[in-house]
Design goal:
Length: about 220
Amino acid sequence: EPVLVLDAIEKTYNRGKPGAVEVLKGAALSLAPGEVVALVAPSGAGKSTLLHIAGLLDTPDAGTVRIAGHEMTRQSDRRRTAARRAEIGFVYQFHHLLPEFSAVENVALPQLAAGTPKVDALARAQDLLAHVGIGDRADHRPAALSGGEQQRVAFCRALANRPRLLLADEPTGNLDPATAGTVFDMLMALVRDTGLSALIATHNPELAARMDRVVHLDGGRLV
Ligand code: ADP
Ligand code: ADP
């Protein structure tokens, strides 16, 4: 069973008003368990809109979003939020780590919010950080880490609650090219080891080529 199915997704901003922008016009996608797909599109094509709809942060005007077999577009906000917290991890171009907390605390926080006991949450956070090569940085606050290290912490945080699906929007877009390649490899290793599915937006053709499949967002459709 696919982890994510998007079918006939339509989205227009400011519908019926003078500034209406038709962004998605029948976008469709199916992500198999363990599959990692690159989402490639020029700026303004609608990548963020698509990722927000797939991540249950926004609703389409038409079409369906299925997460692990469950249709989500017609669920209540409460159920959509619960599904998002349980099934989906997010990574952005900028890490959005909390500056007052250490790396290991940042990774542990989503687990604490989900009710995991503190000792278990911290142990898993420490494991994840070690997995991406920054176990010795666990007690540093974000400001004391390099850009690549900060993004690695953000990857660990996204995976902390063992989601089935990772949605990433230019996860290495803020790093210099050499660092981006290395940090991207770490993200891929983490994704492969945990067996989760991922939809990763990138402008970088080299990174896109390292994924299982590349889809282009073109004229509001995925091809
Ligand atoms: P991308 O992530 O590919 O750069 P976005 O999904 O952010 O594209 O935006 C797609 C289009 O929709 C752009 O033309 C953008 O200006 C427009 N858009 C995005 N969000 C809104 C919004 N909240 N209201 C109106 N227009 C929006
Ligand atoms: P929280 O547990 O912080 O209340 P949610 O359960 O609402 O967060 O969402 C889970 C994840 O979805 C957040 O960690 C964040 O990465 C992402 N997210 C939530 N709201 C937004 C938003 N408005 N725009 C972009 N990403 C968001």
